[in-house]
């Protein structure tokens, strides 16, 4: 896919992307340093004590808040224990893809527009980023995109039925580069197993990172998950043997933010696995 503009419009205020600007720090949110629990004690479930993301604060512009108020009841849901009926939510039956950590939704919106045959759900905890995506959905009339607000692990465990997803995308998760913070990384062995359990047989997990150490970590644990088989070179597979028959494409849009990193010499590693068909 071609490069896409990270801003919703030329005058849009800057909003952080999928990763915090300070990936090594702990001060962004007091609960970001705590271990994950199944339920936060005395806290809002939208902001659980998790290790896989760091909360960020930011303002939502009045125009985006207006879009949010109009559209969120239609296309948005907060994390809950209610199993998701995607067909009813979208008003149609179509293969379902989830993107974990959609940030401001630049790539998410582009993929939804390029893939009208799919139902897409973006998962994010950061409201200003989601508000930018909601505004884009309203402005551009994107009909096959919905958003869930909450921790992705909570969503997968409690809202997504086993073997119901055609694809899962995780693009540029926070690398938590310090060794003592590695337990906070989203992509742990248990998360790979959880994602694989939610994929249909033959479904695809697509991960991208620009952090070398995290890439090594992702490859190690993803390749060790017995439910998954490699479908591209970094996962030990041949993409040409799978590309034509895979249920989702292997391409993704490149944002201007990512292009800036590429020009600065950042190396992108893409991992593509398929759910083994029994």
End-to-end Cα distance: 32 Å
**Helix and strand composition category:** alpha/beta
User: What's the gyration radius in Å?
Assistant: 18 Å
Specify the helix fraction band: 25-40%
The unreliable regions are 7-43, 49-55
Order of helices and strands: EHEHEHEHEHEHEHEHEHE
Round the mean pLDDT to the nearest integer and report it. 84
General form = globular
Major β-sheet, in short? 8 strands, mixed
Care to count the β-strands?
10
Strand content: 15-25%
Number of helices: 9
Order of strands across the widest beta sheet?
2-5-4-3-6-7-10-8
Task: Kindly describe this structure.
This protein is an alpha/beta fold and 278 residues long. The chain is 30% helix and 18% strand. It is built from 9 helices and 10 strands. The strands form 2 sheets. Strands 2-5-4-3-6-7-10-8 form an 8-stranded mixed sheet, with helices on both faces. It has a two-stranded parallel sheet with strand order 1-9. Helix 6 links the parallel strand 6 (165-171) and strand 7 (199-209). Helix 1 crosses helix 4 (127-140). The protein is globular and about 45 Å long. The model is unreliable at 7-43 and 49-55 (pLDDT under 50).
Entry keywords:
278 residues; alpha/beta; two-stranded parallel ribbon; 9 helices; 18% strand; globular
Helix and strand layout, with pairings?
Elements: E1 3-4, H1 62-75, E2 76-78, H2 86-90, E3 96-100, H3 106-114, E4 119-124, H4 127-140, E5 145-149, H5 152-158, E6 165-171, H6 189-198, E7 199-209, H7 212-224, E8 228-230, H8 239-242, E9 254-255, H9 256-263, E10 269-275
Parallel strand pairs: 1-9, 2-5, 3-4, 3-6, 4-5, 6-7
Antiparallel strand pairs: 7-10, 8-10
Helix pairs in contact: 1-4
